[in-house]
Amino acid sequence: MVDIDGVLSLFGSPETPPWSLRVDGAFCTIDGIPHFLSHTAAEHLQGLREDFDLVWASGWEEKAEEHLPHLLGLPEGLPFLRFARAPRGEKAHWKLAAIDAYAGDRPLAWIDDALSEACHAWAAARRAPTLLVQTAPERGLTAREASLLGSWAQQLA
After folding, report:
1. Which of 31, 45, 76, 119 could form a disulfide with 115 if both were Cys (CB 3.0 to 4.6 A apart)?
2. Mean pLDDT within 116-138
3. In this structure, are residues 38 and 21 in contact, taking their beta carbons and an 8 Å threshold?
């Protein structure tokens, strides 16, 4: 499961914008919103395709397919999840129900910059192997996280 904002589309603070961290990427505008898309993160994601079936797990939903293949050279046709928005005050992470339904009993790795305690509790309770990979939103998917994911996949094989 691959989130986009904070994984491929980077953001930071005024003191540490992603481009100041020497992240290879470029600005683009998607539906009138500026994004700094990381070419480095996209390359790492491409490398993970050998061991993983990639699924967009982002509020971008179908917009991932509309924009990311041609902007970042990512594959076309990746599945994406649709999310029911949680009511205000809901404590559980808003993506969990859709991710759980899609994954079923299969092993699952989830890359996101906003993993909560609810995500970790859910992962610990799953019967299937589950790996949560937290990214820093100003750096996104780096070699460190890609290596962790690759090692985990090899251990499962």
Report:
1. 119
2. 96
3. no
